[in-house]
Design a protein that fits this description.
Helix content: 25-40%
CATH superfamily of the largest domain: Aldolase class I
Strand content: 15-25%
Radius of gyration: 22 Å
CATH topology of the largest domain: TIM Barrel
Number of domains: 2
Strand order of the largest sheet: 2-1-3-4-7-8-9
């Protein structure tokens, strides 16, 4: 094979924290998205991908895609894949709090395979820390290329890609296939990165050799999302959300935007950083088509198990009435059996009960909303708190839960601490959630998160974190944060202090009966 590929999501923790009730997934949705075009080329038997180790069934392909939880348990799994596949292309998709894990995994690849493997880093951290500002690339202090040039991390990433990665990854696979055919080490493919500049998408790619960073900026056409396959079609489905009764659960996308229509300063999905809406007009149709594809895939791989999907939009189709109505129209015509989950804000839930009822009629079974804090004014406010003149935040939250209960839609909430709130307010918020659960059967579950400052394309409040240390190091904080989704000891939001160990333990113990028993999927940062 001229192309041999392993892809991985690196570990978040240095050691395994043990059984956790944090929301998690067996399907690394972002990594699947980035690799889906290469996987489709493999399915179609085209080019180097069509002759690669990925030119197999989606079930077999999944064996070369790793989701690693902790470094101490993950490196062994990675080593097994390296010995089995001997990859010449290793794709790593990393969040900021996983950067130390990404470095450790890349180091192992280089120790085992040296220059015969080209290691490519992408994902949210690369995108937010290495990006275009005007016509030129910009490097945040946490940019992996900058860190390698400064000697802060070893030179283990041959290529770093920020932005749209689908076509770049596919093109890199073809480039490495040609290098292999010529008997050249795959890592030397960086010498021809400039040949990729017309590849579609808005992206920037770079390499660091001998302490010198070189970059290539995309000059190709914009990404056309309709041309990309649903990730479940090429990688299958492993996740099962317990709120859907054990049905296999696919991650689906409308690709209506890169982030949220709101601009809450603490949120990694905020509009000012993630950019405007994109391909708005086709988003409802695209989502309906992805749902239909997920149902087909699940029926093929799990006959008669029933299908469920979780919509990865920050808010479901931005809750724009004409998009929701178009989606309902398409789903009504399709007449398929599927349980649908998604995310809305509290005020969106309250704004159009008629849309909620219409969505319930075509399968919407579960909604996840962000509660975040006891009183938004005490943390400086939230952009999404749009109905503040109509009642207090917790009053509207209860109204939203009561409406979901009335309509027959189950719902969970995400709480987010570390925003500047008083500790007593955290405990009061948990008690309020417990009272609602007793009254409405909602929320289920309560998801715990402790706010982490992300690079945010430089909009990080001047913190300038490099993310070279583990966000939660081994020790007592790892035990305290075991049931949290995203959390950090050393990367608090700008202007906020690090968490206090005793307070984190108190929060974890107070909310224990409101968490899921064995974990659930939280596909991305919630609102």
């Amino acid at each position: 094979m001229s192309l041999r590929v392993v892809a991985l999501a690196p570990p978040q923790f240095p050691v395994d924290p043990g059984e956790s009730r944090a929301l998690s997934s067996e399907d690394p949705a972002s990594l699947f998205n980035a690799c889906r075009l290469g996987a489709r080329l493999a399915d179609e038997g085209k080019g180097a991908w069509g002759e690669s180790n990925w030119a197999v069934s989606r079930v077999e392909r999944r064996r070369s895609v790793l989701l690693l939880k902790a470094l101490d348990t993950g490196l062994g799994r990675l080593r097994e894949q390296l010995e089995l596949v001997r990859p010449n292309l290793v794709l790593i998709g990393s969040m900021s709090i996983c950067l130390p894990g990404a470095v450790a995994c890349a180091r192992l690849v280089k120790e085992c395979l040296g220059e015969t493997a080209c290691v490519v880093l992408g994902g949210r951290h690369a995108t937010e820390s290495f990006y275009l500002q005007g016509p030129c690339p910009t490097h945040h202090p946490g940019s992996p290329l900058r860190l390698m040039a400064e000697g802060a991390i070893p030179p283990v990433f041959d290529v770093v890609v920020g932005g749209d990665g689908e076509h770049v990854i596919a093109a890199l696979g073809e480039l490495i296939g040609r290098f292999e055919a010529r008997g050249l080490p795959a890592a030397r493919a960086v010498e021809e990165l400039a040949s990729l500049e017309t590849v579609p998408g808005r992206w920037v790619a770079g390499s660091c050799r001998d302490g010198r960073v070189t970059s290539v900026v995309s000059r190709g056409p914009s990404l056309t999302y309709d041309d990309l396959p649903p990730p479940c079609a090429v990688f299958g489905v492993r996740a099962r959300f317990d709120v859907f009764g054990g049905r296999p659960t696919a991650h689906v996308f409308s690709d209506v935007g890169g982030g949220c229509i709101f601009d809450c300063t603490f949120c990694s999905e905020r509009r000012v950083a993630m950019g405007p809406l994109r391909d708005f007009e086709r988003s409802a149709d695209r989502l309906a088509e992805q749902v239909a594809a997920a149902v087909r895939v699940i029926e093929e791989d799990y006959p008669r198990a029933g299908a469920s999907v979780f919509v990865e939009d920050s808010t479901l189709l931005t809750y724009a009435p004409r998009l929701v109505e178009r989606f309902v129209e398409r789903m009504s015509a399709a007449r398929i059996d599927v349980c649908i989950g998604g995310q809305l804000t509290i005020d969106q839930v309250l704004s159009r009960p008629d849309l909620l009822r219409a969505l319930r009629g075509v399968g919407l079974d579960y909604l996840f909303v962000g509660l975040e804090t006891f009183a938004p004014t005490e943390i400086g406010g939230m952009s999404k708190d749009v109905r503040r003149h109509r009642g207090a935040w917790l009053e509207r939250a209860e109204q939203a839960l009561a409406l979901l209960h009335e309509v027959g839609i189950r719902g969970g909430v995400a709480v987010l601490f570390g925003l500047g709130e008083l500790h007593a307010r955290r405990l009061a918020l948990i008690e309020q959630a417990r009272a609602w659960r007793a009254r409405y059967g909602l929320p289920y579950p309560v998801s715990l998160n402790w706010a982490v400052q992300h690079p945010m394309f430089g909009r990080d409040g001047g913190t300038g974190y490099t993310y070279t240390d583990w966000a939660v190091p081994a020790g007592p904080f790892l035990e305290a944060f075991r049931d949290f989704g995203e959390a950090s000891v050393c990367y608090p939001l700008a202007g906020q202090t690090p968490p206090v160990l005793e307070e984190v333990f108190e929060v974890r113990d107070a909310v224990a009966d409101l968490l899921v028993p064995d974990g659930l999927t939280q596909p991305r940062d919630t609102l």
